[in-house]
Amino acid sequence: MAEAHPAAYDPLPLDEVDLADLDRFTDGVTPWRMFHTLRHRDPVHWQPECAPNSGFWAVTRHEDIVRVDRDADTFTSARFVNLEELDDDQIKKRASLLETDGARHRALRGLLQRQFGQQVISGYADFLRGLTATTLDAALERTAFDFVEHVSADFPINVLARLLDVPPEDNRRLIDWGNRIIGHTDPDYADVLLDSAESERYRDLPFRSPASLEVFAYGRELARRRRGGPGTDLVSRLVNEVPRDRIPLSAQDFDNYFLLLVVAGNETTRHAISHTMLALIQHPEQLDRLRRDPALLPGAVEEFLRWASPVYHFRRTATRDVELGGKRIREGDKVVMWYASGNRDERVFADPYAFDVTRTANDHVTFGKGSPHLCLGNLLARTEVRIMFEELLPRLADIRLTGEVPRVRSNFVNGIKRLPVEVTPA
């Protein structure tokens, strides 16, 4: 059975901490033990890596994470936001919205920003509730099922399909592409593992994943059909609108933007829902509180997001020599914000290892913090998670784990592969 989170973790000895070892991220406990040690012993920690990577500074305290995230002049995204170190040619070919700063970032973000703003998202409530009901009606026809497959993955991909205006029968392909691309370090998902010699053949593709080619082909066909048309879906806006800097999207810009939508629109909300359901199963007193007082749910969503921390980290690169947390960072060094660690920082969160749906002081960094790179879809994700549990909890008299809960082998995405449950409908 999956572990319940204890009140606190036994910190690992500092010399046993290795954030570059992906196998440390598969048991649901060791990452938190490593983060605990680093926050208390070495909050800006030099982490060696195996060649060809050169190592990185691991930033684990909330305060330092916020500082890095807000200072794009000193800590740039333009050298890439994952741990892989790319040459200039690879960066030109693989850069997406995430790997731009300044005016170009604002212009690219502006293409879709209104579609993810409060007014538009509020207008989605009815259709999101309808999609949620469809997902839950199908899942709860069974008494035992994999919650990830039938709920966590099914709902966000239906939302994405609607925003892209693609048929529901394509959902399985969209989920599969997300798994294969983000799971590029997990042998259960990857076509080609990131650290394998074979991955060099795909060095110019996002995440070095050949699945990216399938996403590109799919997106290009959508673009061909939508170009010049009256559509208001996300693809139509990308192909028919010009960014505010008047620099049109190149074919490569479109490819990378579309792939980002497919991956981000699927993975993070899915894992947030899975972690939340697991936490509610493991903390039945919190589940009971929500059942007794559904008005707690809007605030509880922030605790769900803090607890889940579906993305472990994002990277920046220092543009100049700078001091951070008492350490001298050199120009060109990788600086990695461990959002998951920041979300357990005792200096910010009272009793951070407690899952508390009544928590009110919840300054989590799940979507970033005050940065130009604040997650574009954060309002949509919050709304999806809230509506999912508003609709789900009244339908359940009981829900129980029936097996192991395997994790994605990744230090980037904090993902749950399967969540086997048995339910008693209300």
- Give the % helix: 40-55%
3D shape: globular
Sheet-strand content, in percent, reads 5-15%
The biggest beta sheet, please? 5 strands, mixed
Number of strands: 10
What string gives the helices and strands in order? HEEHEHHHHEHHHHHHHHEEEEHHEE
What's the tally of helices?
16
Poorly predicted runs are none
Radius of gyration: 21 Å
Mean pLDDT: 94
The termini sit apart by 24 Å
Strand order of the largest sheet: 1-2-8-5-3
Structural class designation: alpha+beta
Offer a few descriptive terms:
426 residues, three-stranded antiparallel β-sheet, alpha+beta, 10% strand, 10 strands, five-stranded mixed β-sheet, 43% helix
Task: Compose a concise summary of this entry.
The protein is built from 16 helices and ten strands. Helix 8 (154-164) runs antiparallel to helix 12 (251-282).
Account of the protein in words:
With 426 residues, this protein is an alpha+beta fold. It is built from 16 helices and 10 strands. The protein has a 5-stranded mixed β-sheet with strand order 1-2-8-5-3, sandwiched between helices. A 3-stranded antiparallel β-sheet has the order 4-10-9. Strand 6 and strand 7 (327-329) form a beta hairpin.
Summarize the topology.
Layout: H1 30-41, E1 44-47, E2 56-59, H2 62-70, E3 75-76, H3 88-94, H4 102-113, H5 118-123, H6 125-139, E4 144-146, H7 147-152, H8 154-164, H9 171-182, H10 211-226, H11 234-240, H12 251-282, H13 284-292, H14 297-308, E5 313-318, E6 322-324, E7 327-329, E8 334-338, H15 339-342, H16 378-392, E9 396-401, E10 420-425
Parallel strand pairs: 2-8
Antiparallel strand pairs: 1-2, 3-5, 4-10, 5-8, 6-7, 9-10
Helix pairs in contact: 6-8, 6-16, 8-12, 9-10, 9-12, 10-11, 10-12, 12-13, 12-14, 12-16, 14-16
